[in-house]
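During the reporting period, our protein records have gained a structure token line. One record among many is quoted in full directly below:
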Amino acid sequence: MTNHDSKKNWRKIIAPYENISLMRSLWQILNTFVPFFLLWYAAYYSLSYSYWLTLLWIIPAAGLLVRIFIIFHDCCHGSFFPSRKANEIVGNIAGLMMFCPFEQWRNSHARHHATSGNLDKRGVGDIWTLTVTEYLALPWYKRLAYRLYRNPMIMFGFGASYLFLIDYRFNRKGARKKERYNTYMINLAIIGVISLMCWLIGWKAFLLIQGPIFLLAGTLGVWLFYVQHQFEGTYFEKSENWNHVDAALKGSSFYKLPKILQWFTGNIGYHHIHHLSPRVPNYNLDRAHEENQLFQDIEPITLRTSLKSIKYRIWDEDRKRLMGFGYVKEYLKAQKE
């Protein structure tokens, strides 16, 4: 079968990997949530000895919180448990641990999947990306805002904290009743859990442990989401030329990570397959990639090459590629000539 034929028959190719294994899902719950709470307790216990020792427990705990987010992510897609109710229960518990309302994120992320790479439908659940002409048409203060937004220190530092601590506390415009009530419920649960923990161990101990876990996991999560679509050779098209398969295979990265990081990130590096079919559970993504010719020509991004993604800030519709801000001057010069 040629690669062209494979693209036409992608649904048939991907279907076997959409099967949910209840035992594998339960095993992921066990090998993720249990060690997270054990590491949290170890971090608390070590506070009386040395905070440096505490930090040794905090780092893998943050990695496990990223993995918990992947489970949350699968629950949002209904691909973690066969039961819709089970996905909602576990998804809400995981969402509470990350201060992320289940219904709000599920709805905005579904929109992201439906519009990823479509220049005419940007703005919900994605990274703010402007074309060169759009950027130049903005007043100076909006250009400044865009530059600040795309600054790595802000996006991966302040941005992660703002997103999880502040932005997710408010409902989206036009949110339906179920989504609104879920946001209120999660907000109240967050207050309850924090109050309980501060009462049990003291506010200082809680902040010294949960603070760095949350900040590190949030930064890693935002980085993963960023590099999944903001990379050299990514895909953006107007609606008339946009199609789902190309948006998935060209506009979503294959982030080839070392095995240990692949485990902590729940195989989300196989993002091209995830966007092709979000019904594939995270534990089937790697097998789907390895067993099908359709995915073998996709150029992987490594830890080293992914760092280049930081310099890509703006989309040039003529070249059909992401460029750095320095390109704007080059573009203006060419326009004058």
